[in-house]
Amino acid sequence: MEHIAIIGNGISGITAARHIRKRSNKKITVISSETDYFFSRTALMYVYMGHMKFKHTQPYEDWFWKKNDIALKKGFVEQIDTFQKTLVFSDGEHLSFDKLIIATGSKPNKFGWPGQDLKGVVSLYHKQDLDALETYAPNNSVCKRAVIVGGGLIGIELAEMFHSRHIPVTFLVREESYWNGILPRGESKMINTEIRKNGIDLRLASNLKQINSNADGSVKSIVISETAEEIECDVVGLTAGVSPNIGFLSNSNIETNRGILVDRNLQTNIKDIYAIGDCAEQRSAVEGRRPIEAVWYTGRIMGETVAQTICNKETLYTPGHWFNSAKFFDIEYQTYGWVNSEQHIKPNESHFHWMHPDQTKCLTMAFDKSTQLFLGINTFGIRMRHEIFNRWLDQKKTIDYVLEHLEIAHFDPEFYKTYYLEVLKKYNTETNKTLKLKKKSWSQIFTLKP
Questions:
Q1: How many CA atoms lie less than 13 Å away from 321 in the CB half-sphere?
Q2: Looking at the chain, which residues constitute the CATH 3.50.50.60 domain(s)?
Q3: CA dihedral defined by 225, 229, 232, 238, rounded to 10 degrees?
Q4: Do 376 and 336 meet the contact criterion of CB atoms below 8 Å apart?
Q5: Is 448 left (phi over 0), alpha (psi -120 to 50) or beta?
Q6: Which of 80, 243, 256, 330 is surrounded by the fewest CB atoms within 10 Å?
Q7: Contact yes or no for 350/366 (Cβ under 8 A)
Q8: What Å distances lie between residue 177 and 9, 163, 228, 279, CA to CA?
């Protein structure tokens, strides 16, 4: 019986295992040194905040794996012998395979800061990080202040987590405005305000110089590069992005760049060895996408794709239109298609931006200034229907069409009733157009008919 070994039990590896099992009776072994069972990484913050228990992050019961004949092995793979098709574990054990899927995910970036490995320096990527947070920041008596270094989505999550336990937070962001390499200027400014409104000491254009130590090797303070200011703290959260977790392949003949290089079938340069998820890097970017995309849904798609190929239905990786979602304290964020920041805006890309006076709800639509083709949308504080925007992007609708039919994309009909005409009025004023609402019945809206 053909043996499929999968290194990594995150969304990519587990999706691959489940779909291989659906299509075959192949022997499957999933290997992880992190946890016994698959869990949702995006839920770690809610465990710390007290909204759920860790067991609630596990979507499958413990019996699921045996019932579906998926073997789980706890261990750390130290080496891959591609010639003998053998995995070598840190304890010296060996495991043979016929086909191998590498799904080892990401690791947090560290840039050689003095003190970056002290006790109390944490991240938010693995179950062990959650354990470390409970050790070093269980409350504001043990942790009198936390400093977060890095202004991405993980950084804002960590800030909200500390805030939920009333731990004062200083947030170092190297950019001039939060996440302004991704968000257009108005949106970035709005999130700056939201962060500060929640009592976070946001320091923009600020970089970490070093982390100072107490005599016992724990965190004492940090120093800011630009000002030499020292800030006393008990915990430092490093959230300055992630990199593919591929260090164990350094002496392998599997080709790597930043990640493990794969083709559209997700196969490496070695036959029968594949890579999926955050650790995989496309040799040629797919349909304008980035070669590495560390988001859960692309990992899931890769898992489904490689499962079909391994089960003799060769399938190309096709991620579809870009989308993502996040939460900035009380403001929910969604994006569909491409809306670039001013730093990365395309030559023919134009934006329409609307913001509510309360500065907690806004939307930005991107479109081609020559053809009026709708390119994408960012929404804050407004929940939209993914399938509608996916359809409009497929159908290559214009910005005018999207605005005239925007009512059917809202989850919340109250938004339509309260704000829709304001959005349309602002667009008409800016473009000297006279677009009008295309009236739809509520039955049409809720059955998603365009």
A1: 21
A2: 3-107+243-310, 121-240
A3: -20
A4: yes
A5: left
A6: 330
A7: yes
A8: 36, 21, 21, 29
